[in-house]
Amino acid sequence: MANQLGLIIDRSSPVPLYHQVVQGIEAAIHSGILEPGSRLENEIDLAAQLNLSRPTMRKAMDELVRSGLLVRKRGVGTQVVSSQVRRPLELSSLFDDLSNNGKKPTTEVLTFSHMEADAATLATLELPAGSKVYHFTRLRKVGGKPLALMENWVRDDIATMDEAMLASEGLYAILRRGGVNFRLASQRIGAMIANDYQARLLEAEVNSALVTMERTATDDAGRRVETGHHVYRADSYSFDMTLVQR
């Protein structure tokens, strides 16, 4: 496997040996030599082929697992994870981002209701008492593989929506058609471990890592239009962002 991947260890290089292994395997993954789902040989064999110590090889593999490129599965070994959905950190919908990147997302609407908003939703969307909202949960898939479990609350005085519409297109497309011009959003990204319900729907293991996102979007008229709590499979999803010094 090491020879097939073209891994070359330069002991005269200032780059640590373990990081040379990391760089070599990363290059093999990004170039397609190692395809998603490919199994790697065990660390002892890889270390022997590269004439490295087992702790050095273990450190390299740990780094690749932490970065989300490899995953260790009991009874299977170490595998290349499926290609991640890399999402730019901007005010756009997941459906739009996936479609714009040539992917074909599908959506299953799990629950849908038109209901009087509770106190927390009224406060978040800055609505008067007695206001109604659309409340729904959706399971978003890419290539038949579950990616995201999404729960949203949307004010009902802008656009009409139903389950069929949400199953066939993105939420932001529906709202834009209703005249919403999104201006800004407050967003929080975090992490959690999957509970039984989330793991079953996302086809993940219980206690596996999930990326979380909470967002409340505001339009150019100053109205808080929607708020949502989303969870994503951490082995298939990441955010890209650019940081600027001020």
Automatic annotation (TrEMBL):
Signal peptide positions (record): none
Residues forming the HTH gntR-type domain are: 15-83
Q: Does the keyword Endoplasmic reticulum apply?
A: no
Sorted alphabetically, which Pfam families does this protein's record hold?
GntR, UTRA
Q: Which InterPro entries match?
A: Bact_HTH_transcr_reg, Chorismate_lyase_/UTRA_dom_sf, Tscrpt_reg_HTH_GntR, UTRA, WH-like_DNA-bd_sf, WH_DNA-bd_sf
Organism superkingdom:
Bacteria
Q: Which UniProt keywords apply?
A: DNA-binding, Transcription, Transcription regulation
Q: Which PANTHER family match?
A: GNTR-FAMILY TRANSCRIPTIONAL REGULATOR, MANNOSYL-D-GLYCERATE TRANSPORT/METABOLISM SYSTEM REPRESSOR MNGR-RELATED
User: This chain belongs to which protein, by name?
Assistant: GntR family transcriptional regulator
Q: Which organism is it from?
A: Pseudarthrobacter humi
